[in-house]
Amino acid sequence: MPLFLRVTPHQLQFKFDARTSRGAMRTHQVYYLHLHDSERPGITGVGECAPLPGLSIDARPDLESKLNQLAEQVGQQQLKADDWQGFLKSDDLLEWPAIRFALETAWLDLLRGGRKILYENSFSQGTTGIPINGLVWMGEKDFMQQQISKKLKEGYTCLKLKIGSLDFATELEILHQIREVAVPEDLTIRVDANGAFAPDEAFRKLERLARYSLHSIEQPIRQGQLEQMQQLCAYTPIPIALDEELIGVQDATKQAELLDFVKPQYIILKPTLVGGLQASAGWIDMAAQRSIGWWMTSALESNIGLNAISQFTANYAINMPQGLGTGQLYHNNVASPLQIDKGWLWYGDSAWGELPQ
Length: 357
Fold this sequence. Notes:
Strand 9, helix 8 and strand 10 form a beta-alpha-beta unit. A seven-stranded parallel β-sheet has the order 5-6-7-8-9-10-11. A three-stranded antiparallel β-sheet has the order 1-2-3, sandwiched between helices. The chain is built from eleven helices and 13 strands.
């Protein structure tokens, strides 16, 4: 008997203007994909398609029409469970990584009974938490200082600061103030430039940032400048993590060439941007073969997508904080068992809330 796919749009409302070097976001348009199997009535698998404007390659005006087309295609072709893996790998979906992530996770949820338990592991069973970084958004100096103070009081031992929006001297002053109250042994600091530095100034800025004993910097220069990024990674005083650089690199041979040429210290994986959980697993395998570190990060999905990413992450031996603390960003997020306590993400006992219909 065939599968059926239904698409529900939902506009998430940020609690504040979420600023990056690419601008501010007040809303985030996402789509929930509900997957049904006529042989298993009453069971629905749910995935989330949540591309980020200005970043995701599939944040396109025709995204919603593509989703509706896929829903019709699933029904018209009377796809069955045995057809699903081939459907996910079709060339038609190569340029739609956020859709692939949503379809993949909806399928995993359906297979396991529609309970939003995609992986049976110690995290989804509630016995083990995942260490996460506290995210400090760009904004005026006072706003950033308020966030930092709040995160420290909440018990975080790793902070990630978005930089590149204020003038550089002010950002250095904020880092200095953090280090006055929290030494490196007590607090890990990551920064994310989102490609804000010009190549000819990046190394000098990295040298100045290094005074504050930073764990790493994400994407110091804009993606696509591979020779400049290679030079930075070779001589940087701060470990560099590739983030945006991975977007759109979907062929395994090209992925290997990228890592072999740039030789970053870390890569950061966002399943919505790189094409799903199995695509992320492929990057992890390649990184491990090259002694490149990695961590997982949400791409501002609601709790549906965050839940899938968190459970996937928990399949691995976690040795550093992950970027999975985004569930509290929205006024109208889906209620979930995900909860944060002292810088750790847990899967608790709370019930899942109703999804928009």
